[in-house]
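Quick one: structure tokens for this chain, please?
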Amino acid sequence: MASEPSYPTIAAGDHKGYMEYALEQARFSPPAPTNFCVGAVLVDANKNEILATGYTLELPGNTHAEQCCFIKVAQKHNLPEEEIGQVLPKNTVLYTTMEPCNKRLSGNRTCVERILMLKGAIKVVYVGIKEPETFVGENAGSNRLEGAGTKVTVVEGMQDRIREVATAGHEKQKLASGG
């Protein structure tokens, strides 16, 4: 059996610290012009314990960061992903560098649907930035989560760094002077 992953110690309630760790995860995502490089950290807020981490395309199957966190918890408990809400601690929160997706061009289940199928197991989703409109237009994921009772909070102060990592592999806008 694989050993338990080793995670850093981050002070309880240090939302920037957890978002920094999520940004570290995002840096592992393979840059590509067709996706964002996103990192996520799933946390038991009562015990201040990291349950799982993930990043875009970490696992097979065009996976998103949040999805990778959920798959790891499912594997640890030998459950289907849809049932991990049964084993997640009472005060589970999710840190993700980008707002969870509400539409996927691949046809895969969205991250918002994955969070909602856990039936309230995730109380708060902390996000670094809103999803840019690059691929699917406006993302109403935050509104949908909040409408279902999951609080969404933006962790301020890291937006530029998160956006830079998220768009690695995307073609940069040319300067007006042609350079």
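The helical segments are 15-26, 65-77, 111-116, 141-147, 159-166.
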